[in-house]
Specification:
- The chain folds into 3 domains: 249 residues, P1 Nuclease (Orthogonal Bundle); 85 residues, Immunoglobulins (Immunoglobulin-like, Sandwich), CATH 2.60.40; 46 residues, no CATH class.
- It has 13 helices and 8 strands.
- It is elongated and about 90 Å long.
- The protein starts with 7 loop residues before the first helix and ends in a 17-residue tail after the last helix.
Amino acid sequence: MPEGSVGIVSRAETSVRLLLVALCICQTGIPPYPVAAWSMDAHSTIANAATGLLPSPWRQFFAYYAGLLAETATYPDTYYRESDPNESPRHFIDLEIWNPNDPSTGTLPQAVEEFTGEMESAIRAKDWNSMFIDAGRLSHYMADVTQPYHTTVNYDPQTRNGVGVHQLFESTSLAHLSEIRMVGSADVGPIIPISNVTTFVIETAVQSHSFLSSINQTLIDEGLQWSPELTNIVENRTNAAIIATARVWYTAMVRSNSLPPELPKVDELSIVVESIALNSTSYGVIRLHVIDSLGVKTRADVSLRVDGSTFRGQVANVVPPVGEYVIAVPSGTYNTDFVFTAHKEGFRPATETLRVGTPSPSITIPLPTVVALTVMVAALIALVWYRRTIRHDESQGKSVVSIVMPTKIAQE
């Protein structure tokens, strides 16, 4: 096997899905995801299965937001990696050389500790939107630490044919799905909170690391495509990820000393308009977000009706993006109110009216115009001050020398 340390960027490019590419076929008792592609993602599947292990009433609360958890569990591999240079090390720990003061050897234990605290704080504040974002993030990290190749510097060894082990996992997993059984609440019993999160993550990583020699022997030394032992290893690590995720979540819940809210009897949407910036020379931008009855941001079909025209909302380029929208409208003067609507299947639609009238509610003035206006105002003030000074001096019978010309010829 090739040896040596690896770079953070290349590790991010080869992160695997722990052989769970379609494990949503297993019975978890949780409602199916609203988007089919999410059910094919391992991280979403683990988050969904972990929900079923939580005690009541947290279990029902998380199940209600199963779709949101499925989405936020994937953010670390997408939005966070793209927007945060510190994200990649949060996905691994190189146990052979790990130094908690050297981010290049992995910051996975610190990340789980940090965001467990963030989740706890969000629960205390009853900020359920932030809580589900943190919960999805924690689920992702706990799935990573149960993947053996996220715990070693040699994260993608090659087979005799030069094929990366990760790629081999991807290509052979579908044929063995029926052999993998995911745990449920009857198998696990009551979930126990964790006393020391950092230590728990490191111990879990050590357990994952212990399977490397067996996997490498089968896939590399023996040149096999698969074996019953590999099936057992994958099942073991998959269920370890599910249980570990539930335990980390429950730790934040217990530490917060709080309970979840009651689920709404009627699903309702609300629209919150954040800003309207209209420019006289280009398209204006309206920013808004959509929330449900508990203040959790959610996806919806958003549109604006003004002056007989309809404009559709687009997902905003922000992190995280769920529930965030922008609407582009032609700049100018509008003679009717701005009427926003949001629709989502199973929810009571929302309507928000801004009585902007004429002119539009907010105008963004270009910077050159601001500079020009500032210079004009300053010149006017200087002129007024100069004239008052001249009049005052003349009234006192004084000789006035107001300006020294460039040619140094003084005016009397």
